[in-house]
From TrEMBL:
InterPro entries: STMP1
Originating species: Lolium multiflorum
Name this polypeptide is given: Uncharacterized protein
Pfam family, any one: DUF4535
Length: 75
């Protein structure tokens, strides 16, 4: 009886993980899900470029304008 409880408890912890993994795989294969790592790297590169070119205002405050172009073909 105790072994049964352990198995049921383990399945209760593993089942949500497996269900989430299966839904994620299905969504990634059938829908256009963006690659967040790629987008984050592009954003960081643009941020670093603008930061090195950044100008300061009269009050000593630095202004930053970051523009990122997102091509849906690259996702």
């Amino acid at each position: 009886m105790r072994r049964f409880r352990v198995v049921v408890a383990a399945m209760g912890c593993v089942f949500p993980f497996l269900l989430g993994t299966a839904i994620g795989v299905y969504a990634a294969q059938n829908y256009k899900v963006p690659n967040l790592r790629h987008l984050a790297n592009r954003y960081e590169e643009e941020y670093r470029k603008k930061k090195s070119d950044g100008a300061t205002r009269a009050g000593g405050k630095r202004t930053k304008t970051v523009m990122v172009d997102i091509d849906h073909d690259e996702l």
